[in-house]
Write a structure and sequence with these properties.
The complex is a heterodimer of chains A (about 750) and B (about 170). Chain A has about 750 residues and is α+β, with helices and mostly antiparallel strands. Chain A is built from 21 helices and 31 strands. Chain A is globular. A 5-stranded mixed sheet of chain B has the order 2-1-5-3-4, with helices on both faces. Chain B contains 5 helices and 6 strands; from the N terminus they run ββαβββααααβ. The longest helix of chain B is centred in the C-terminal third of the chain and has 15 residues. In chain B, about 30% of the residues lie in helices and about 15% in strands. The radius of gyration of chain B is 18 Å and the shape is elongated. Chain B is α+β, with helices and mostly antiparallel strands and about 170 residues long. In chain B, about 55% of the residues are buried. The chains are: A alpha+beta (about 750), B alpha+beta (about 170). The interface between A and B is large, with 72 and 69 residues. Strand 31 of chain A pairs parallel with strand 6 of chain B.
């Protein structure tokens, strides 16, 4: 692997990058031909199903599977005994860390069931009906234990304890008693006390958010086939086939190269498909049954047992002078991790105040286990929760000192050279440009009527790079099969093909993108962290330059001129030396490749570094119905620095989609549990994500402040759009009603109660 | 329990299959006929990913039993294009980038086609309420609504209504 430290920012005029061609996988996806996780069938395939805990917290005394095993048509039954127990070992999965000790327990409960829906056993049978009958025959002897769902209750010394070996990391000295507090993190610098003493205005508020699910429309699904000699194939919907391979091999005690994982088309992920649930179970069942096993989660299982993001309690305090300079910022974040440690409190803490240039700042975060499904990454994991609270307080401070909220942000905006609260100095970023664009937008000066309010919020997200490979296989007719290792979750085949075509100087129609399985390429980190157009883009560009190098060599051989005399211009080798002008096209060189040295393949295996943070500012107008408390989104404008929009339509799509997910988070979505820890709304009827009639058009403004570390200036755009909406909407609802809203979701009963409370004062 | 024999029509072709009585039409389409373009997102009629036409009426295939298809006409996403010619809705979805992951796309296309057959000139609000039963988590619906309106205009032979200014790109040094 080599670091791509000099990516040679492309300075020439661009022909393809920045245009809006049709996506290469388009026809398959509008005709129903595209194969998603549940769309694959194999002969003699069995159906796998999971038995799940009905209890939020229970010790598993014993599991008797004998009756299920003897049912005719049942081919395999597994429990945790069929997976490896593993020591505690943290490794990255997207922007989160996973721990194998916890992972093996999360995919199949061992000592205890830790949330309702926690898997305790699984069966494979010849059909779904028999599989369901078999589940009913499995006898689990549970000792039901007291459970805890709320972070503040879980932090109490007498709270029910989930793990008796959890001693809080990050406090000195390490506690001698176990607790539900997995970790404490702290970031910041300066002198808070001095900062607040200089402030003319101080606002301090407490906030709460509920766990919300990524809400991908495609449930988790996979098809595993393990042969008698241990060779295994797995087809599954995932954001990272190489991550699935790594996790499953570990859980099953296999070598990674024994297992070939193919990523199906993926029906949404948003971070939630960066971990494994049923995939290792399907492999274990198939290994036992020696037949292919297909498993598909129901929507209820998705909501009960796959990862939402954290619910949280947050306290934020901000002080500012009356001329609008922030003097200090302080935040306390308490995030639910679910049943196992690993909430996104650390990234949340890192980006809480990141849009601002502060002298005195502190963020303290706690990662707390509770009897809920283990959280998974969700689009900018941790950021939206912390920044919702900070952006609400920023708005209130601006109001108190009588400054326009955009003006107040501009006076404090982080820029190139600003020291981020998490340590390093920021490179070039586009927050100021998004704020200026917001202020200049017609939306910002449009009139409002009674019961309407306008809100503004900004947002920050890091973006990541990571291990990435790509291959460009030059066909004898001059077409290019482009193999990448990152699943295409929203148009990356298009953006990556465009960069390859731009580099090679050939028409886009000759690039044929393929998402390779784990046998096709070296290790690729997953599709997440807004990294695909950035990292796979860098790899594709490097592979294309490798192809060009080889083509120049072939031309120099044919012309018998020094390599230095051959340039690559617009898809042609040109002889730059003395004598007559000569030119060979890529297709001509490809046709004769067999005679000039053999097939031509361009490869890249890189560790992409230098991802650039993407910042955004959102504007929203709402109307609040004073009789019902219903909030209607009237107008929405999302403004974001993309660095460079390779395919602007798909960049807009990310901004629009993130904004609407944020609208759901702000107004509707929440997990509702009863006092036994049972989820009361495990379906799309009651866990209500925004529908088409809930929202207006989402206007977009793409700002382009190039990331100097990418050949085309790409930053990555996927995650930032979900950061500002909750703050912007809360600010808008607060302005419409005159009541400050600090708890999400702002559902009609909550809004109505707040309005009524205000009127009765 | 013995399976039932069902004779039906799928995308204009006469089809026979055996199904158990608890199998839904969606199960039959996907697992017996291998027409996997109709998707299962919820199994409870909430997401619309399995939208199909049954005797000209838009239904969720997960809420219909396989045996209920007997003697009736089923149309699915697989029957939408005409040979290699995409339906105008399919074409406009591609032109407008109205899909990201694509899992909801077949159901939305079937539902949108049903709308335009009833109402060839819908307003934005009519499109939004008609599609309110089809969940999309990726797009925020903006480009979907634009694509449906543009397809409607193309099918009427009219030029598309000018869409409200929605996207701006600004370059900074």
């Amino acid at each position: 692997m080599n670091d791509m430290t000099n990516p040679n920012l492309v300075a020439r005029e661009l022909k393809i990058v920045g245009t809006r061609p049709l996506r290469p996988d388009g026809a398959d996806k509008v005709t129903g031909r595209a194969k998603f996780g549940a769309d694959m069938h194999l002969p003699n395939m069995l159906v796998g199903r999971v038995l799940r805990s009905p209890h939020a917290h229970a010790r598993i005394r014993s599991i008797d599977t004998s009756k299920a095993q003897s049912l005719k048509g049942v081919k395999a039954v597994i429990t945790s005994a069929d997976l490896c127990d593993l020591p505690s070992e943290f490794i990255p999965a997207g922007e989160m860390m996973v721990n194998f000790k916890d992972m093996t327990r999360n995919v199949m409960a061992r000592e205890k069931a830790l949330y309702e829906g926690h898997a305790v056993a699984a069966v494979a049978a010849v059909n779904d009906r028999i599989a369901a009958q078999a589940l009913a025959l499995i006898e689990v002897d549970y000792e039901v234990l007291p459970h805890v769902m709320d972070v503040d209750e879980a932090m109490q010394p007498d709270a029910p304890l989930l793990h008796d070996d959890m001693f809080t990391i990050g406090v000195e000295p390490t506690p001698d008693k176990p607790s539900n507090i997995a970790k404490r993190v702290e970031f910041g610098f300066g002198d808070l006390e001095a900062g607040f003493s200089k402030a003319d205005v101080i606002v301090e508020r407490e906030f709460s958010t509920k766990p919300v699910h990524q809400g991908y429309i495609e449930p988790h699904a996979c098809l595993a086939s393990v042969s008698e000699d241990g060779q295994a194939e797995l087809w599954c919907t995932t954001q990272g086939q190489f991550i699935v391979r790594a996790f499953c091999a570990k859980l099953l005690g296999m070598e990674v190269s024994q297992l070939r994982v193919t990523a199906s088309e993926i029906g949404g992920g948003f971070g939630g498909k960066t971990v494994v649930y049923i995939e290792p179970l399907a492999l274990a069942l198939s290994r036992k049954a020696c037949k292919p096993v297909k498993m598909v989660m129901s929507r209820t299982e998705v909501l009960q047992a796959s990862g939402p993001t954290s619910g949280a309690r947050i306290r934020v305090k901000v002080g500012a002078t009356k001329d609008g300079r922030i003097t200090a910022g302080d935040a306390l974040l308490k995030y639910q991790a679910g049943a196992f440690q690993g909430s996104p409190v650390q990234p949340g803490a890192m980006c809480a105040f990141a849009p601002y240039d502060l002298e005195n700042v502190r963020i303290v975060g706690f990662d707390i286990v509770v009897n809920r499904p283990k959280v998974a990454a969700y689009r900018a994991p941790g950021g939206p929760i912390a920044e919702f609270a900070v952006e609400s307080v920023i708005d209130e401070v601006a109001m108190k000192i009588g400054l326009d909220p955009i003006e107040f942000r501009l006076k404090n905006a982080a820029q190139e050279g600003t020291r981020a609260p998490y340590g390093p100095k920021l490179g070039p970023i586009g927050l100021v440009q998004t704020l200026q664009a917001a202020r200049a937008h017609a939306h910002y000066s449009a009139p409002l009527k009674a019961n309407q309010g306008r809100g503004v919020a900004s947002g920050f997200w890091f973006n990541i790079g990571g291990e990435t490979c790509a291959s460009l296989n030059l066909g004898e007719d001059g077409s290019v099969a482009m193999v990448v290792g990152t699943p295409d979750i929203g148009g990356s085949r298009a953006s990556l093909s465009m960069m390859a075509a731009e580099e090679l100087g050939i028409s886009l129609e000759h690039i044929h993108p393929i998402v390779g399985d784990t046998s096709a390429l070296g290790f690729n980190f997953l599709t997440g962290g807004s990294r695909v157009t950035f990292s796979s883009g860098m790899a594709v560009v490097q592979a294309a330059r490798d192809v060009i190098e080889q083509l120049r060599e072939r031309a120099s051989k044919i012309w018998e001129v020094p390599l230095a005399d051959v340039e690559w211009v617009e898809g042609h080798a040109r002889c730059a030396g003395p004598g007559e002008a000569r030119s060979l096209s890529l297709a001509e060189l490809a046709r004769t490749a067999g005679k000039t040295g053999g097939p031509i393949i361009g490869n890249a295996a890189i560790n992409a570094t230098g991802a650039g943070p993407s910042l955004a500012t959102h504007l929203v107008d709402v109307e609040v119905d004073p009789e019902t408390g219903k909030v209607t989104i009237l107008r929405y404008t999302a403004i974001q620095d993309a660095g460079k929009a390779i395919h602007p339509a798909y960049v807009e799509g990310q901004m629009q989609g993130g904004a609407v997910q944020g609208i759901g988070w702000a107004l509707n979505e929440e997990y509702i549990y009863d006092d036994k820890g049972h989820l009361l709304n495990p379906g799309f009827l009651d866990y209500r994500i925004p529908v088409c009639s809930d929202v207006p058009m989402i206007d977009t403004v793409i700002v382009e402040v190039p990331n100097p570390n990418h050949p085309y200036g790409v930053r990555g755009v996927g995650e930032t759009p979900i950061v500002p909406p909750m703050g912007a909407i809360a600010n808008a609802v607060s302005h419409a009603t005159g009541v400050r809203f600090t708890d999400l979701p702002m559902s009609p009963p909550r809004v109505l109660a707040a309005i009524d409370a205000q009127q009765s004062q | 329990m013995s399976k039932r024999h069902v004779t039906t029509s799928v995308n204009g072709d006469s089809v026979e299959f055996l199904c158990s009585t608890e199998q839904t039409l969606l199960d039959v389409l996907r697992d017996e006929l291998f027409l996997t373009g109709s998707k299962e997102g919820c199994g409870s009629g909430d997401c619309g990913a399995c939208s199909v036409m049954l005797d000209g009426r838009l239904v969720c295939a997960c809420l219909v039993l396989g045996v209920e298809a007997n003697g009736r006409e089923v149309e699915t996403i697989e029957g939408m294009s005409d040979g290699e010619k995409l339906h105008p809705l399919q074409q406009k979805f591609l032109e407008h980038a109205a899909l990201q992951c694509g899992i909801c796309t077949p159901g939305i296309l079937v539902a949108a086609k049903a709308l335009l057959e009833k109402n060839p000139d819908p307003t934005e609000t009519e499109v939004r309420y008609w599609l309110a039963g089809n969940l999309c988590r990726c797009t925020g619906y903006d480009k979907i609504v634009r694509a449906v309106l543009d397809a409607a205009a193309a099918m009427r032979g009219a030029s598309a209504k000018p869409a409200a200014a929605s996207s701006v790109q600004m370059q900074s040094a």
